[in-house]
Structures are given as structure tokens and as C-alpha cells.
Amino acid sequence: MSRKVLTTPYIVWGAAFIILPLFMVLYYGCTGSDGSFTLSNITAMADSVHYKAFWNSVWIALASTLICLVISYPLAYILSKGKHRGSGIVIMLFILPMWINFLLRVLALQVILSKTGILNAILGFFGLPLQKLMYTKGAVLVGMVYDYIPFMILPIYNALCKIDKDVIEAAHDLGASARVTFQKIIIPLSLPGVISGIMVFIPSISEFVVADILGGSKVLLFGNVIDQEFNVANNWNLGSGLSIVLMIFIFISMAIMNRHASEEGDNMLW
Questions:
Q1: How far apart are CA 256 and CA 261, in angstroms?
Q2: Helix, strand, coil % (nearest 5) of the chain?
Q3: Alpha-carbon span 228 to 230, nearest angstrom
Q4: What are 172-206's pLDDT values in tens digits?
Q5: Cα–Cα distances in angstroms (integers) from residue 255 to residues 155, 248, 250, in the given order
């Protein structure tokens, strides 16, 4: 009885804020304005505008995830090996932005990347040509990397810190070079952290705030299309139908990542 009483608030919360909203999205996505059943809202994904926006989101999400990985893994590896006090300070510097409101961080980037912003002021001080950074895919990419890189660094750093030092020393005692040890031991044992970090792809593909502020009307992502259907066109049916397509793609991506994570876990056991 005590367990049932304790779990009741979570069940109510999940039903009210997870199951019910999903049911509403499915209902609106599979019905027309007159309430009749239709799949036209989902098949509208084949429209050229929706199709291009979707693949723009996929490629930018993949690029931001790859950039986060390329930056995070070497840094996390160096910090996990370092025993100096500076390691904790560097980790804290990456965590601190997470304590600030997401929208404020994006607006701060707008101040930095704008035509009269800090970056162009520095370039002008050194006599270098000014750059048009705002309202480009590059600005959107910078914003997404900046916002999601802490979620890539922390799981990789934790996975590297959990590697038993005795295993690495045993590899060296058996004649393995530093390169072989890194390839055969460190990378495989850190893959669970890498896979957890790659999950930043999931929020990246549905991002629309960064594209709206840093990309303006020149960078249209799939999240922006859905947002416009709900808040501008007031077409909840089409917006829900496109959301269903996005959810299906996200579920498939999560299933693939979880499968690779379980396979890596099985390989580690062997």
C-alpha cells in the first residue's frame, strides 16, 4: 500500500503531462478540421517546404552532434587524466551556462555574432574584414553547439573517469603502446559515455528557438514549421501531423542508439 501511495503522484503527473498531450497530438494529427479521420496531415510531410525543412534539421543536428563530439572527447580525455585542480574549474566553466536561462544564452550569442557585436568589434580592432554571421546556418550551428556541448562532455568525462587505471597499466606492462591502448581499451570502454552524449541529437533535431533568433527567416528548420503551424496559422491538425512524423523519427533514432548501447555493453562483458 505504501508503494502505491508513493507512486500515485508520479502516475497522475505522467498521465496529465505525458500521456494526455501525446493523445491530443495523435488525435489532432489524424483528424481534419471537421473531426473526421484523415492521414493528410501526416502525408503533408511530402510537401517540398516540409521536406526541405526536415532534412535541414537532420543535417544541422548531425553537424552539431559531430562538432560537440570532436570538441568534447579530447577535452574530456585530457581532464580525466589530469590530476591538477584546473580540471574541476574547466568542468565547472562548461556547467555554469546550464544554470542560466536557455533563452538568455541564445540572446547573448546574438550580441556576440551580430553585425555590431563583440566578435566584429574585435575583428575591426585588428583591421580584419567584418563578417556577416547572424541569420546564417553557421550562426544556428554555433548556437546549438554552445547550448548542447555540456551534455556531451559530462557523460564522456564520467565514462573516462570510471576506467580502471589498473587495466591501462596492465596493457602497458604487456607491451601495448599508448596508441594501441587508446584504440583497444580507452575508446571501447568510453563508448557508453559517447553514446549517451550523442543523444544530444534528439533535442537538436527538434530545435526551433535557436533557429528563430540566430537564423531569422533565412534558416527554416522543421521545429520552426511546426511552431508556425500551431502559433501563427493556428492549424493544430497539420502541426500535430508533422509532430507525429518528427516523433516517429526520434523514436527510431533512440531505438538505434539504445541497440548500439546494449551491444557495446555485451561486448564489454566479453
A1: 9
A2: 80, 0, 20
A3: 5
A4: 888 888 889 999 899 999 998 998 899 899 999 99
A5: 19, 11, 9
